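Here is one chain, start to finish.
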Amino acid sequence: MKVIEVAQELIRFKSETGNEEEIDKTMAYIKNMMKLLGAKVDIFKKKGIAPVIFIRNKNTINFDALILGHIDVVPADDKMFNPKIKDGKLYGRGSLDMKSFAAVALNSMQYVIEHKLPLNFGVILSSDEEKGSKGTKAFLEKYKDIHADIVLDNDVGGDITKIIAKCKNPVFVKIIAKGEEAHGSRPWDGIDANELMMEVLGKIRKIYPAYAKNGKTPKNKWIDTLHFARIEGGKVANIISDYCEALCDFRLVETSTVEDLKKNLDKCMIDGVSYEVVSSSTPVVMDEKNPLILEYKHFAEEILGQKITFEYEGGATDAREFAVRGSTVIMHSGTGDGMHAAGEYVEVSSVEQIAEIQTRFLSKLALAKGK
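Its structure:
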């Protein structure tokens, strides 16, 4: 399989999260390709839930190795769905996050089938990862007994010289402030919900400091962080706001719990202000001495011709759903930049190298299983 050509074809689909027509077209393209190879392909659909495509070389839900990823992307200008290669870089929406590596997954499936590797191998690609992965959760509810010894996750990082050993727990919290309306010229006749919100957010900031490119940067970046994703309050300029709402994005390291977070938030609440945890997950923490990860690392170093180090990542990954089931999760991606931005790109060589690392690693797994 020509991985870069497949990556370009995938990028051409405007499969923004929620664009059902384009997502269906993307999955149909993948299904047709995999069916021709002899793979078993199912598209899981549930009303109101984004579909998930499930590809297997055998009719099983117990896997020696599994690749997890997604085919949806964040919104972009139409021109970003016309992929271009320049100076060894593939530009386009999803080039880094993560259509190039969906192509790598499909290449690995082709390799396993054509070389008749004695592995139970699968690929799961969701279509709403950019907005909470409800599709993956519904899929795993249906296939509640699914298991994988190893999960290969290319939806992390952006540097092929780094293997991610830890990912944080994303926790989203909604804070609600309720006040009383009054005319803007007579603030003493009302209670400003916006003021209540600012007071509470200020208290929270004392516990979880602000960081920015043009401001403070922590020396140790493996810490709990918070950004205010959305703050909305007020109807018109001359009315004291009676309602304000904020959505907070916390990223917690593995030593911090949601209960710890709640205790901190409880200290910050005042009359008229409350909060609710909208969603939380679990951090993914892998043992850097895990023999399977070290073997993968060895192949990667051999192919790249340089040392690879372990890194910790603040972002979340759907692989957490398998980490909690006991899978060894190997989090490794190609090199690129501009994820979710106008200049998104991936280095072509790194995509090809990830593809080679995967196939060689899978061959070694098959050889070990055959003994």
